[in-house]
């Protein structure tokens, strides 16, 4: 009986150790599952985009071209037509002007007139976060590892710090990410229906920024 009691006593610590190890493993698994939660990706990337702007990493509304684009959008809205000559320049006033970014400029003025400067900044955050998320989602579909895809997206987001401003190139960044995701889905996952987005995206893009040529 003494031998049985001794064996039982020796067995209890081992059981406790196993139980402790299992509890720690469960905690680690729960933390990883929380990080891997795909539903948290967009809010997290929106937070990153907001920090890029609020911490001064981006020029934001201090961008030198912001007010020129805003004034052009106002001119289009007030006249109901696209100007054919330059009404702003001192040295080139009245010279022919091909306005190839009018969709962005009209949209920018509409946002500013409706929601003010705060709304413009929110639109920049939304566009930047959407581009981040589309890239993350496309990488996740290819790799099947949301955490790795998120880390790669964050590593690449540093290059967006200087361009997260209310300027037409945001349309190029967002449209390029969207088309890349659509084409990847078609090539690697046989998702052909999203290809229908290509034509309307290009229609907007070609009238919003010269970067449409890479599309």
Description of the structure:
- With 215 residues, the chain is an all-alpha fold.
- The chain has seven helices and no strands.
- It has helices at residues 2-35, 41-54, 66-79, 102-143, 146-157, 169-189, 198-206.
- The longest helix is centred in the middle third of the chain and has 42 residues, at 102-143.
- It is globular, with a radius of gyration of 26 Å.
- It starts with a helix and ends in a 9-residue tail after the last helix.
- The model is unreliable at 9-25 and 27-35 (pLDDT under 50).
Multimeric status of the protein:
single chain
Number of helices: 7
Distance between the termini: 82 Å
Low-confidence stretches: 9-25, 27-35
Q: SS-based structural class? A: mainly alpha
* Share of β-strand residues: under 5%
Helix and strand topology:
Layout (H helix, E strand, L loop, with lengths): L1 H34 L5 H14 L11 H14 L22 H42 L2 H12 L11 H21 L8 H9 L9
Helix pairs in contact: 2-4, 3-4, 4-5, 4-6, 6-7
Which characteristics define this entry?
215 residues; mainly alpha; 0% strand; globular
Tell me briefly what this model is:
This protein has about 220 residues and is mainly α. Helix content is about 70%, strand content about 0%.
């Amino acid at each position: 009986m003494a031998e049985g009691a001794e064996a039982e006593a020796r067995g209890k610590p081992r059981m406790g150790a196993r139980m402790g190890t299992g509890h720690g493993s469960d905690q680690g698994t729960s933390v990883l599952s929380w990080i891997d939660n795909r539903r948290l990706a967009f809010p997290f990337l929106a937070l990153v985009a907001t920090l890029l702007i609020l911490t001064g990493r981006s020029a934001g509304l201090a961008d030198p071209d912001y007010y020129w684009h805003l004034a052009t959008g106002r001119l289009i809205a007030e006249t109901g037509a696209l100007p054919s000559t330059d009404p702003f320049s001192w040295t080139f006033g009245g010279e022919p002007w091909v306005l190839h970014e009018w969709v962005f400029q009209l949209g920018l003025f509409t946002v500013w007139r409706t929601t003010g400067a705060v709304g413009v900044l929110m639109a920049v955050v939304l566009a930047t976060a959407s581009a981040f998320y589309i890239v993350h989602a496309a990488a996740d579909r290819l790799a099947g590892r949301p955490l790795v895809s998120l880390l790669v997206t964050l590593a690449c987001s540093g290059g967006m710090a200087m361009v997260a401003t209310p300027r037409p190139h945001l349309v190029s960044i967002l449209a390029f990410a969207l088309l890349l995701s659509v084409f990847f889905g078609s090539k690697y996952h046989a998702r052909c229906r999203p290809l229908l987005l290509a034509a309307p995206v290009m229609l907007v893009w070609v009238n919003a920024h010269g970067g449409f040529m890479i599309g």
